[in-house]
Design brief:
Elements (H helix, E strand, L loop, with lengths): L2 H5 L1 H15 L4 H7 L4 E10 L5 E12 L5 E8 L4 H18 L4 E8 L7 H15 L8 E5 L5 H15 L20 H19 L8 E5 L3 H12 L3 E7 L2 E4 L6 H11 L9 E3 L1 H5 L2 E7 L15 E7 L7 H9 L3 E3 L1 H4 L2 H15 L5 H26 L3 H20 L4
Helix pairs in contact: 2-3, 2-4, 2-15, 4-15, 5-6, 7-8, 7-13, 7-14, 13-14, 14-15
Length: 418
């Protein structure tokens, strides 16, 4: 993604927030507060490398709004991270938690690095130093990180341990997405993909699409994309294409997903999997299908390729995968878009359950967790769909309307200090 597009990310979110607030006659004191982030922390910290040298890394932790509860949001490790992107993602988290109906605000974090080029020891030292620096605002009652692009349960374990060492006792609720062995939740790893699957099923039901005759294409073969693909296949959908950062594979008769995942584990990419045709990521997005799940990075669909998308439904499993210009093109073409702040809320829903478990030492089994996720996702989808139909707006705008009404109510009820 080009730097100019990334620098525009927060402005795009602010523009839509501003427009919807004005349309809903939300008080200016609420609208203006939502146009900026409440707290922004930038840290530049040294890390000892394996060769004996020292490298300085830059990281961010940004809280957009915590009117509805402690702020919540992932931490990403990626060479293209910048502060404007983190601001945008923090704002999207505020909206996502409100749409899902869970008592959280929104935050996001990131470190400018390439985790693929760091050893496990270097990654641990980087994580612990970053965690110790953002402990200024992080805490189980204030700001709760989770995994995102380039991070995983092990990274969350290091953050939890670092924070706990500073307190003198274990604080499992300081992060979510941890390994189960130290207080993580069953079903958390698959939660975002499962939520995307639920959104896809509900979208298909709304458009009266028969699962036995429908095709699915998935951009992204990480925990979100691979999980969504697997779960949709189990629901009877034919998954014909899937990709990772290197490219994609396609089979008109349907992919053997187990074979694809095993091939990726063995080689590092889906490309070259037996009995598949190799395609580019650009070609994958233009495949004819009923459902396209975009579960990679931001702005995968833009004004340059939106006109070539042939899906009937787009499910945004990633955060911000569609630019505003592209979204307008898709909607004008009659494509049904399940927006990110609705479609990928499964992760934060299960994170909420993990947080409650950490605070209260009370645990649910995986069946209960998946049931809770499905119920909240279904309620949120139906609420947004109802607003979309009643107000004659697309699903993204309806989701923003749902979230901003809840946020405005919370802010007005609490008032302004002092």
């Amino acid at each position: 993604m080009s730097e100019d597009v990334k620098e525009q990310a927060f402005q795009n979110v602010k523009t839509l927030i501003n427009d919807v607030c004005r349309q809903l006659n939300i008080p200016d004191e609420c609208r203006l507060r939502l146009m900026d982030c409440e707290r922004e922390l930038t840290v530049n910290f040294p890390v000892k490398m394996d060769d004996g040298g020292v490298k300085v890394f830059t990281g961010f932790r940004i809280v957009h709004n915590d009117s509805r509860g402690p702020s919540k949001g992932g931490i990403r490790y990626h060479p293209d991270v910048n502060i404007d992107e983190v601001r945008a993602l923090a704002a999207l988290m505020t909206l996502k938690t409100a749409v899902a109906g869970i008592p959280y605000g929104g935050a996001k974090g990131g470190v400018i690095c390439d985790p693929k080029k760091l050893s496990q020891c270097e990654l641990e030292r980087l994580t612990r130093r970053y965690a110790s620096d953002i402990a200024l605002i992080m805490g189980p009652d204030s700001d709760i990180p989770a995994p995102d692009v380039g991070t995983n349960p092990q990274v969350m374990a290091w953050i939890m341990d670092t924070y706990s060492m500073g307190r003198g006792y274990s604080v499992p609720a300081v992060v979510t997405g941890k390994p189960i062995e130290i207080g993580g939740s069953r079903g958390r790893f698959e939660a975002t993909g499962r939520g995307s699957m639920v959104s896809a099923l509900l979208s298909a039901k709304h458009l009266c699409i028969d699962p036995e005759e429908a095709t699915v294409v998935v951009q992204g073969c990480g925990n979100v994309g691979a999980t969504a693909a697997d779960l949709l296949a189990k629901e009877g959908y034919c998954v014909t294409g899937i990709s990772d950062s290197s490219g994609g594979v396609y089979s008109s008769g349907g992919l053997n997903l187990e074979s694809v995942v095993n091939h990726k584990k063995a080689t590092g990419s889906v490309i070259g999997c037996q009995n598949t045709e190799t395609i580019t990521n650009a070609e994958l997005l233009e495949l004819k299908c009923d459902i396209l799940v975009v579960a990679a990075l931001e702005h995968a669909i833009h004004k340059g390729n939106a006109s070539a998308v042939k899906a009937r439904i787009i499910v945004e499993g990633a955060n911000g995968p569609t630019t505003p210009e592209a979204h307008k093109i898709l909607v004008d073409r009659g494509i049904f878009v399940a927006p990110d702040i609705l479609a990928n809320a499964g992760g934060v829903i299960v994170s909420y359950l993990e947080w409650v478990q950490g605070l209260q030492s009370f645990y649910w089994d995986e069946t209960q967790i998946n049931s809770y996720l499905g119920r909240l996702m279904t309620n949120a989808f139906n609420q947004v769909l109802s607003i979309s139909e009643c107000e004659g707006v697309d699903m993204r705008k309806a989701a923003y309307m749902t979230a901003l009404k809840q946020l405005a109510t919370a802010m007005c009820t609490r008032g302004i200090f002092p």
